[in-house]
Design a protein that fits this description.
Elements (H helix, E strand, L loop, with lengths): L1 H14 L2 H15 L1 H4 L12 H18 L2 H12 L3 H4 L6 H32 L13 H30 L4 H24 L3 H7 L4 H7 L4 H6 L6 H24 L10 H12 L22 H20 L6 H12 L1 H4 L1 E2 L2 E2 L4 H8 L12 H14 L1 H4 L3 H4 L6 H33 L7 H30 L2 H17 L30 H25 L8 H10 L3 H28 L5 H15 L9 E12 L4 E11 L6 E7 L5 E7 L3 E7 L4 E10 L4 E11 L17 E4 H4 L2 E2 L10 H6 L24 E11 L3 E3 L3 E8 L2 E7 L4 E2 L3 E5 L2 E8 L8 E8 L7 H18 L7 E7 L6 E4 L2 E5 L16 H11 L16 H21 L1 H14 L17 H18 L2 H15 L9 H11 L5 H9 L2 E14 L5 E14 L5 E3 L4 E10 L14 E11 L3 E8 L5 E4 L14 E3 L1 E2 L11
Parallel strand pairs: 3-12, 19-20, 20-22, 23-31
Antiparallel strand pairs: 1-2, 3-4, 4-9, 5-8, 5-11, 6-9, 7-8, 10-17, 12-15, 12-16, 13-17, 14-15, 18-19, 21-22, 23-24, 24-25, 24-28, 26-27, 26-29, 29-30
Helix pairs in contact: 1-7, 2-4, 2-7, 4-7, 4-8, 4-9, 5-7, 5-8, 7-8, 8-9, 8-13, 9-10, 9-16, 9-19, 10-13, 15-22, 16-22, 18-22, 19-22, 19-23, 19-24, 22-23, 22-25, 23-24, 23-25, 25-27, 31-32, 31-33, 32-33, 33-34, 33-35, 35-36, 36-37
């Protein structure tokens, strides 16, 4: 049978190819070294668990998809490329046999390549030195399920698409283009955008080809599940496999009917002539006969002629790429898609963002090492087009003619490079146009042409040009088209993952730099100067790569390695020598300057060395954690900021008081290694016995011990100046516009610093440290004041450049000018926590007064906002939040302890907020949210500011949590709950529903499942999400006044910020005292247990009883179970009051920012006591219902709440249409 012969021949032929074995090697080595690239943060998860096997499989699958198109492409189009098709097409073989045999062989090879992925993963942990404690039991089912559910389907889908397109296009290289279309554009950009546009997260799971959505799902697995669970082939994954199988089959059938055993001629005579002219170089400086002599003179090839040749070759290469179907179209398509889907990317928590350049730039720019972006298509296209240009003449069989043309190797190589460079310039133009159109379509009036041009043509373009030179040189050296593609891809992966492999110095990673960013406040800041030196340095290397390309360019060269070496030696001319020397000179000069900056002016510390120092700090000095130390009760500082010179000097003094019952003869100082701390002096005689600059710890002994109640003063100076630039993470603490630093990062502190300890247990184990965990609730020492929790009087004088405003905690006492500088004097009218920040920028000011009419004291609180002049749109909204929050919190919990509040905008592209005593600061992105003024729309800005103001009562201002388990609940849960109450009072219940839905959607609830109870919470997620849900749900069972009264009692007992500090046991006690005995079991379920419910509504039937009443019957299910720290669950007896709701359609609220929350009105909403897993509940309502269900307001912790409600069936008819609540 001819099918078998064709299959056998194709399989053996491809298996004998070196490129095929390279693919096998890549598929083996990537998972083999996977543990070096990805390290578990949780030591409860084995490194060889099914979870990490899935990660390695998906990661390697993506790399295979982007590189291994050769097999399918060669199987489909090799006869055309080798010019054998006239003979093959005349043989007595059918299309089914011909295409079927070749496709089957290609698919089998790709399937076999995927089999070495689990093999490499398995051997990687047993053949290398991996800690045996991180290796779990071998689970063959995990390998089989991952292969058959992920790897094998991917191999089939991709092979089918690559083979089919290559058959239709009759070009093997088309298979690589299919890879670019399938992953960066279709599977990622389009799939993600459509899913967001339709607000259907499950839709992306159906479109996702390679398994990225699977990774997102398994991130929510518990440690127990990560170690034991396998991929289930059901739900979205099953439908995804079926959909892609259908698509792949249709594509294969289509290609079968399109294929014919007929040669496809050129589409037009003009294209044929153009192709011949381009290939043969007919335009290249041909000699012209001398009409006077009548014979051909010797041609002259001076500089002018060589320059003309270079221009012609550049034009020819450019037209070859630009005229192809992929040269411009793919990036152009990507740019168009960016404009179309911009609204889906320009949002935060469902709220639109303003299309400022700070928000648009991340869409159109990306570092060369960032593979988690659709812009990865550009380096992939560069790699592909570089191979096309190098192999252009040989692919068309014209190399023997073109190689004899009177053109130098410099001209040939640089002509191809410059042609590719012009295409890259056009790509940057597409992205520039996309950025402008995004701003226009999103309603932005100030078009940032200058910013986009600088980012795209001064930074991005250079990166891509450097990579283009590398790609061309690699292709020339490898001298194998498809292996060249693989080699370039491996080079790119090395650049992307070099830091993961322990190579961190930017001088060693091709094309790298310290990084850059742009914000509206600071612009490009100090980033451009280091970029210039780095790009100059890499241009020197690019010159050497050009020399390599020129020397190794294949041109009528003798076969074999020896022949190439001889040819390279012969080509080493004077121009080559001078270029090489110039490259080395540039590398030497710029590299020396960079090294001087990164390793001499600044200390270069690798991540491994930094971790080692952290471990050393703990190992040497943790013994001083509980040693008696004086406490800071007074702080006076004078700060001189020099933003133009990026320098700061600080002179300060602490008043230290012995508040312990024992004399103190030793004072420990935590010194920040990043700055110079000097002139430390005490008002008592003291001697330094330890001055550890490396770890940042000093120990002083007092000649006369400090007796209980006695005090002394400590004076100090801190100086730092950004000298040159660092290897990475440039210091932006003091810059031209937007200086900002926190005292805990610069100032000396008293005692041992717990926050400097290593937190990841695998790293701690490496350095012989015990597992890290928060102190227990029952550890009395955790309730003592720790570093940064002290209450201190505060006074500061801050000087800055003219035109800038400096800000520190406290009231602004006075301002003045001296010697062309601005000075500001601040003083707090009451003690504040010893955690504060200093700011300086060219601010505008908004000042208002809140009048206290609720506490009976009739006092005023002045609040001042300092903001960037271009960010004024949301200032009034913030002011409304401040007014509402101060009113509600003062009335509900107690008075605000200060007479002023300062709100400051902080430079930086992140939109996070931070609360400190008397001050709140926020990143620039926070005020770039385009919040709808409709009162029914989600107002994230209003809530976030209310949350931060609540910290003046919880966590920062009055009730300071003990540094123990549950600390985040005491701080973030209480602040979130308080902010939620302000939102409800201002906007109503609909806004609360929107916020609760946002929290459920943005943070996958299953992530909470395997964590501790709220009492012993050790993860910030519990504080930010589960804690507030518990407190809010409790108001649904009692009343919010009950919860508020408990919090007020907590504030009365622990609001003085004195030891013992409050912890979750105190909160639990106050809640228990405030709630009736009948709810103590529910309270225990919420806080003392890690308990969840599984609630579901199976059916809802409704029938009219009379003209005004309807009978509604619900069949519901309810389970209750606890989950331990490993993720194992245990069923609990059900004896709970659970809410049942019946709803009728309501009036839709226009302008709701977060879709998916339908407007309904309740017809019935009461709690029923359920004791059985299955129950039938019948109620009477006054209107025709549309939906009904169990726990409709999500008062209980249900991991999968989407099935809580069902549409009602009327008299057995089909289900009525209705929106999900």
């Amino acid at each position: 049978m001819r099918f078998r012969q064709i299959f056998r021949f194709e399989f053996r032929y491809q298996l004998s190819s070196l490129s095929t074995w390279i693919y096998f090697l890549i598929a083996f080595m990537l998972p083999f070294w996977f543990s070096e690239i990805v390290r578990p943060n949780d030591d409860a998860v084995y490194i060889n668990s099914p979870f990490f096997l899935i990660l390695a499989t998906v990661f390697t699958g993506v790399i295979w998809l982007l590189s291994a198109g050769t097999i399918a492409g060669q199987a489909a189009a090799r006869d055309v490329q080798t010019r054998m098709y006239p003979l093959v097409y005349t043989t007595p073989v059918s299309k089914l046999e011909y295409l079927g045999g070749r496709f089957s062989a290609a698919f089998l090879l790709n399937a076999l390549i995927h089999t070495v992925i689990p093999l490499g993963f398995f051997l990687g942990f047993y053949l290398r030195k991996v800690d045996s404690g991180q290796i779990g039991p071998f689970r063959p089912e995990a390998f089989l399920s991952t292969y058959f559910y992920l790897s094998l389907p991917l191999a089939f889908y991709v092979t089918t698409c690559q083979f089919s397109v290559s058959v239709i296009r009759r070009k093997a290289i088309a298979a690589l283009l299919v890879s670019f279309l399938l992953f960066p554009i279709l599977s990622q950009l389009i799939g993600y955008s459509i899913a967001n546009l339709l607000d259907k997260a499950a839709l992306y799971k159906l479109i996702d080809l390679v398994g990225i959505s699977v990774l997102k799902d398994i991130e929510t697995w518990t440690p127990f599940e990560k170690n034991n669970r396998f991929i289930p082939l059901n739900g979205p994954l099953l439908w995804n496999r079926l959909i892609w199988f259908a698509i792949a089959t249709l594509v294969l059938v289509y290609s079968y009917y399109r294929f014919t055993f007929v040669h496809q001629a050129e589409k037009s005579a003009r294209k044929l002539r153009q192709k011949k002219a381009d290939i043969t170089g007919a335009d290249v400086a041909s000699p012209v006969p001398d009409s006077k002599i009548g014979m051909f003179p010797l041609p002259s090839f001076g500089r002018s002629a060589r320059f003309s040749q270079l221009l012609v070759l550049t034009r020819s290469s450019f037209r070859y790429i630009a005229g192809s179907r992929t040269g411009l179209s793919l990036v152009g398509l990507y740019a168009i898609l960016l404009v179309v889907v911009a609204g889906q990317f320009l949002q935060e928590k469902g709220v639109p963002q303003y299309a400022t350049p700070m928000n648009v730039l991340p869409m159109i720019t990306a570092s060369l090492t960032n593979i988690n972006t659709g812009l990865i298509i550009i380096p992939m296209l560069i790699a592909f087009l570089a191979g096309e240009l190098i192999w252009r003449e040989r692919d068309y069989g014209q190399h023997k003619m073109s190689d004899t043309m009177p053109v130098s190797e410099w001209g040939l190589f640089l002509g191809k490079y410059m042609g590719l460079a012009l295409v890259i310039v056009l790509w940057m133009g597409f992205l520039l146009l996309a950025g402008v159109l995004i701003q226009l379509t999103q309603g932005e009036a100030n078009i940032a042409f200058g910013v986009f041009i600088k980012a795209l043509f001064s930074i991005q373009l250079i990166n891509y040009l450097l990579f283009a030179m590398l790609a061309l040189a690699v292709h020339v050296l490898v001298n194998h088209k498809y292996l060249g593609h693989v080699a370039v891809l491996l080079a790119y992966l090395f650049i992307a993952f070099a830091e993961k492999l322990g190579i961190e110095h930017t001088l060693l990673i091709y094309g790298s730099d310290p990084g850059w960013s742009y914000t509206d406040m600071r612009g490009f800041g100090p980033f451009l100067a280091p970029l210039f030196w780095y790009k100059a340095y890499w241009m020197g290397w690019a010159l050497l790569l050009a020399v390599v390309g020129r020397l190794a360019l294949v041109r009528t060269m003798p076969e074999g390695f020896g022949g190439r070496i001889r040819s390279i030696r012969n080509r080493f001319t004077r121009s080559t020598t001078l270029t090489t020397l110039a490259g080395f000179a540039i590398i030497l000069v710029t590299g020396s300057y960079i090294f001087y900056n990164t390793n001499v002016l600044n200390e270069y510390v690798s991540s491994r060395e930094w971790i080692k120092r952290q471990a050393g700090y703990e190992r040497h000095y943790r013994k001083y954690l509980d040693s008696p130390q004086p406490r800071i009760t007074g702080t006076k500082i004078t700060v001189e900021l020099y933003p133009q010179h990026r320098k700061a000097t600080i002179r300060g003094s602490y008043k230290l008081v012995n508040l312990t019952p024992v004399p103190i003869d030793t004072i420990c100082l935590d010194i920040k290694p990043e700055v110079e701390t000097r002139n430390i002096r005490f008002t008592r005689t003291a001697r330094a016995v330890v001055e550890d600059r490396l770890h940042g710890f000093n120990i002083y002994t007092l000649q006369k011990p400090l007796q209980p109640g006695d005090s002394l003063q400590m004076n100090f100076e801190v100086v730092w100046q950004s000298k040159g630039f660092r290897n990475t993470n440039l210091d932006v603490s003091v810059i031209d516009n937007g200086s900002y630093f926190v005292n805990q990062e610069r100032f000396p502190a008293i005692g041992y610093n717990l926050y400097r300890e290593l937190r990841t247990n695998p790293e701690r184990k490496r350095y012989g440290l015990p597992n890290w965990k928060l102190p227990s609730l029952y550890d009395s020492t955790s309730r003592q004041i720790r570093q940064g929790q002290e209450l201190t009087s505060f006074e500061a004088i801050v000087g800055t450049d003219e035109g800038q405003t400096a800000i520190a905690p406290g009231n602004l006492v006075r301002t003045w000018k001296d010697n062309g500088r601005n000075y500001f004097h601040y003083a707090a009218n009451a003690p504040i926590r010893h955690k504060f920040s200093i700011f300086s920028a060219r601010y505008r000011t908004y000042t208002s007064v809140w009048k206290d009419t609720v506490s009976g004291k009739k006092r005023d609180v002045t609040f001042t906002m300092y903001y960037h002049p271009g960010h004024a749109d949301n200032i009034e909204r913030i002011a409304r939040s401040v007014q509402a929050s101060l009113t509600y919190y003062t009335r509900t919990f107690g008075p605000y302890p200060q007479d002023h509040l300062t709100i400051i905008e902080r430079s930086g592209s992140v939109g996070d907020l931070n609360a400190e005593p008397t001050a709140i600061d926020y990143g620039e992105a926070f005020v770039l949210l385009n919040v709808n003024d409709n009162p029914q729309a989600l107002d994230v800005i209003f809530f976030a500011m209310a949350h931060e103001i609540a910290h003046q009562w919880w966590g920062t201002g009055q009730v300071i949590p003990a540094l123990s388990e549950g600390a985040h609940v005491m701080s973030e849960s209480l602040a979130n709950y308080s902010g939620l109450q302000v939102v409800e009072e201002t906007y109503g219940e609909e806004q609360v529903r929107l916020l609760l839905k946002m929290w459920r959607d943005a943070y996958e609830v299953p992530r909470m499942a395997y964590m501790n109870s709220l009492l012993e919470a050790n993860d910030p997620f519990l504080g930010y999400r589960k804690g507030v849900m518990a407190l809010h749900a409790l108001t649904g069972y009692t009343h919010k006044e009950t919860v508020n009264n408990a919090l007020r009692q907590l504030l009365i007992k622990y609001g003085a910020s004195k030891p013992p500090l409050a912890n979750t046991l105190d909160l639990y006690g106050e809640l228990k005292a405030a709630t009736p005995d009948s709810l103590h079991g529910l309270l225990s379920d919420y806080f003392a247990k890690n308990l969840y419910w599984q609630l579901k509504t199976d059916q809802v039937h409704a029938e009219p009883v009379d003209a005004t009443h309807w009978k509604v019957s619900l069949q519901v299910k309810a389970k209750k179970y606890t989950i331990d720290s490993t993720g194992a669950d245990r069923m609990e007896p059900l004896n709970d009051w659970i809410e049942i709701g019946v709803f009728a359609p309501g009036v839709a609220s226009p302008g709701v920012a977060t879709p998916g929350v339908a407007s309904t009105k309740p017809l019935y909403l009461k709690k029923h006591k359920l004791t059985q897993e299955e129950s039938t509940i019948t109620v009477l309502v006054s209107e025709k219902p549309v939906r009904a269900g169990i726990d409709p307001n999500y008062l209980l912790f249900d991991l999968f709440p989407d099935d809580n409600q069902k549409n009602a069936k009327i008299n057995g008819d089909r289900m009525m249409k209705g929106d999900a609540l």
